[in-house]
Amino acid sequence: MNFEALDPELTDYSPAIHVSLDPALDTSLDPGLDPHLNPTLLQNVELDPDGVPLEAMPVPDPMHLMEGVYSELHTVVSEVGVPVSVSHFDLQEELLWVGNHGGHATSFFGPTMDRYSSFQVNSTDDIRQIQSLENGVLFLTKSNLKCLTRGGLIMFDYVMDESVDMHSLLLTDNNTVLLGGLQNHISEIDLNSVQETQKYNVDVPGVTIMRQSNRFFFCGHTSGKVSLRDLRTFKLEHEFDAYSGSLSDFDVHGNLLVTCGFSSRMNGLACDRFLMVYDLRMMRSITPLQVHIDPLFLRFIPTYTSRLAIISQTGQCQFCEPTGLASPADIFHINTVGQLIMTFDVSSSKQALVFGDSEGCVHLWADSPEATFNAYSRETEFALPCIVDSLLHLDWNQDLMPLSFIPSPLTNEPLLSDWPAANCSPAPSRWAPPVDPEILRTMKEVGFIGYAPNPRTKLRNQVLYRLKELEPEYDNYKQVPESPIGREEEPHLYMVPKKFRKVLLYKRELAIPIFFKNFYIDFCCPLPPPPPLPSSWGGPLLNSQVLYFLEPVRCLVQNHLCQKEFCLGCELGFLFHMLDLSRGDPCQMGNTLSRFQVVPSSPFPGGVVHSPLCFQVVQSTLPLCFQVVQSTLPLCFQVVTVPFSFSQGGSTFGSSGDSVIGQLFGCEVENCSTCRCGKETVRLSSTLLFTLHYHDMTSSDKIIKEVNFADVLKRSICLEQNTQAWCENCEKYQPTVQTRNIRCLPDVLAINCEVNSMKEAEFWKAQAEYAFRKAMLKEKAEKMKNKFFPFAREDLCNAEGLHFYTSIEELKNTWIPYSIKMRLSKTKELEVTRCSESEEAISIVITLNLGYGVTLQLNPMEEEEGTYIYDLMVTVAHILDSRTGGNLVAHIRVGETYHQRKEGVTHQQWYLFNDFLIEPVDKCEAMQFDLSWKVPAILYYARRTYDSKYNLEIKNPIEASVLLAEASLARKQRKCHATFIPLMLNEMPQAGELVGLDAEFVTLNQEEAELHSDGTKSTIKPSQMSVARITCVRGQGPNEGVPFIDDYISTQEQVVDYLTQYSGIKPGDLDAKISSKHLTTLKSTYLKLRFLIDVGVKFVGHGLQKDFRVINLLVPKDQVIDTVYLFHMPRKRMISLRFLAWYFLDLKIQSETHDSIEDARTALQLYRKYLKLSKNGSDPDEFRKVLKGLYEKGRKMDWKVPEPDGDSQNSPKSASVFPGVIGL
């Protein structure tokens, strides 16, 4: 073909990509044109002498279009004779995309319609939809979704089943698309994984058009219906039956939905000139809009008004308002030279319209010659100009032609021909281990073959190889043997001290007391759910420990009680109360952890216990991944401190300045923004912690300068930085100088170290090295002397709690000071200095008992006005250990109040908290950070004697009214269904009285375990139980045996197993909508049990240890009477309640399901029986004989109870022991 007479840009493309035309067409045109060219394409088109159509040439500059009125700007040929099937304005760049029935795609740049790219998308099917993305373009054909770059390179090709017939595509977000067609389902495709993630079934097949608004997905069907579906679940919300024939197009804007289509008339389809208009607020149709053309396409063009552009297939375009009347004067004609309009689209800027016809021409209409397709388009990347013609000619026939004549570009960027780094790095070699010397000693040689007996020092079929590290990057814990064999050959595995490594405890280890290096886990506290412990509770656990040792917070939360169901303050109060009561018993914090998922702004929206975020934080194996820890831990701290929002005594416990938390951690700051125009904006806010901002370090600075920690802290608190911000005076974003000044000093200063890259780590190392050199010079220059005390320095060193630097190792890796002095002047200027050693020593000596009989009459340092001295209280560090994934540890200085309350001594001590491991450490160890394995995360400095101004008195907020009658959450509960009688005021329990207790549970998560080849089982994820029913019965008095608590616990979590056979809980019992039980919250029942514990009652039950653990209660041992241990012999099995009731009481219980009322009454009867048999514990020998008979009977009957004989009098509900039950 001869392309010289057509658009010159068409000569760049091979004619093979064009569909062949009919050669029998008229050839009476200019002989310079291709004889195969359709003459109707150029009808009424004036040609210049060279044969080029004038209308295909760019519009000259003098041409003027009327602003606001659309006029034809350009007409170009996409592909001659091939109908255009789809057009699309690029949403990121100034490009117009066109696809045709031959599967070919072409893009044009700008309003001048310069050809940008052209490539084949599909060889057989037509292109039906085009959607531009950030880094590519999506093309939809019949059964294929392909993503290509704007230059034509394939990014992915998703092939669907051949039976599908796709027609519509909708981009719901940046990574998800919906595909619809003639089949009865809509597919959801994830663009990241290029996989089908969801398939939604539709009742009416044939979804050919899809739109989206902020309320619904709109699906247009071939049957003439438009369905509205939910944005999240894709469920059908409403449906409009627009036309009886078929639907051709529709569009949505605001609250209006407008459709056009075909109606069934005289056994055929006719184009309906009435546009159906629907109001989405009332979900009904309003007055139809009659137009003067046959509508095939329509679009909203909301520029000044909500105009509609209505297009007919013959090239007529009419603009009108959807709620007005259409006027014939608003009809425009598109010069298609007799061809049919096949596609129509509107640019996002509403300045350009595009039409594609059946002959392959593309018509661009615009409201101005300089129209843009998008409001903010990014710059389009063009191909570099070819420079081959400017190079010298090289004669390849000459053998002596040097290859250096061939020019090569000089660039610092990687080339396409470069090998990947993974293929260039040397792989470690496997070197054979040396032969055992015993084999060499006993070897006998026969010729060149040696024979030796097997020394039996190695396992069969196993040979240990050592990997030779050819590069330093292989020396990083990656080659860790699974067995202890050969570990002595890799000493670097023990770089992390043992006490800092991650502690893994399993379920069998929780049943016994835990000791670590002769230090009993006494005050520590919070134990998570049964192990293997998820590492995700590390952040909340550390924050709970920090808050517990802050006396004002500990006292405040225990005094607090509110009516909110999910209150983190109440849960912390319950936890801290258990810690105060515990004497070596581990305390659960399951309820506290579960409250994190309902607290606003929580970093653990899916729950703390199994939060994937925290799990990734602790399990990270990269050395510099601890920036996630530093960003998560402060947020956890804010979650614990900020969202309490409850009132007590007229003050709010939150982040306000009048609250205790606000006074402890809050700091009022003044943020000032100054624009370069001179406008200054000042706003006040409060913050709970400060992030360290280090001095600017560029890559050219080979030597890091020495900086004092106090200077870095001052620069971080009084921060000054340049940033882009909105200026109301300039009415645009301008470079502004933002400064931050504080107006008051907090009592507890929380600091985020922000060591999240190698640059910050090197900075810390350099500063620690400078501090170490200074200390060494000072040691050499003068000896340590005490200027304040006349006795010897050795005596002071031996005093309890007082420490002087005596070892070089204690001076290494220390940069942060133990004490800092902060002064806020009257003009609000901050001064931060490091306290001298004499000031630190005085504060320590005064607070410690030297134990030598010396009475020190020293007054503490008088603080000047506005001057405060802060002592280090807590350091949190991230331990880098690739073997275990790393973990968080904390050094906490436990004060005198705790030791006085727990041990009766006045003492201060630093402790290391590493999960369950608690060990006393030295002060200098808490300040040391070896950046190779111990990275600083959070620091807490506390003001000296800060707690003197707070009320530290604890009053129990739980009153007896919690046991009185309360309303049920269940809507269908009736009084006739009551299973208990609440206590009256004259029945309130007293200390020592008996209360029967039993609880039933449901399963929230099933256990996930792994079976090994040797038959052992390891638990990957333990089952999670939740209490579902708690029953308490009276243990004495005229109503003995009558329950006064029978609460069903409502839960918001999904129950996977109700365990009906063992719990008696049925589906629906815990649902407030359909339950007929007395439904209440866990917190309400928890308060009742707490009141009973505080009063001093004795709980009688069977297997109470598990009940209290799941309920998360700590009950003193002298208040628990467990029948499972009363009727138990050492080293024998535990006996079930069902068998004990049958043997001792001749009662047959738990025949079908368990009933907590029945179990609690039976436990009380068994305790009465025990007192009778043992004569109130005075005759143990006689009772031992009874137990032997019990075990002999159990072995004979295989511990099974005979089947019931139908006699109902054996039920404990009708037993004469409890006469008050009959009244109930």
Write the layout of secondary structure elements.
Layout: E1 71-77, E2 84-89, E3 95-100, E4 104-109, E5 114-120, E6 129-132, E7 137-140, E8 144-148, E9 154-159, E10 166-173, E11 176-181, E12 185-190, E13 195-201, E14 207-212, E15 216-221, E16 225-230, E17 236-241, E18 246-253, E19 256-265, E20 268-271, E21 274-279, E22 284-285, E23 289-290, E24 295-302, E25 306-312, E26 316-320, E27 331-333, E28 341-346, E29 352-357, E30 361-366, H1 421-424, E31 429-431, H2 437-442, E32 444-446, E33 449-451, E34 466-468, E35 515-516, E36 519-520, E37 526-527, H3 538-548, H4 551-559, H5 568-581, E38 587-588, H6 590-595, H7 612-619, H8 626-641, E39 646-648, E40 651-653, H9 660-665, E41 667-675, E42 680-687, E43 690-691, H10 709-717, E44 720-727, E45 732-742, E46 748-752, H11 758-781, H12 793-798, E47 819-824, E48 830-834, H13 837-847, E49 867-879, E50 887-894, H14 896-902, E51 909-914, E52 917-921, H15 923-927, E53 934-943, E54 994-1005, E55 1008-1011, E56 1017-1021, E57 1024-1034, E58 1043-1049, H16 1060-1063, E59 1079-1080, H17 1082-1095, E60 1098-1101, H18 1104-1111, E61 1120-1122, H19 1123-1126, ...
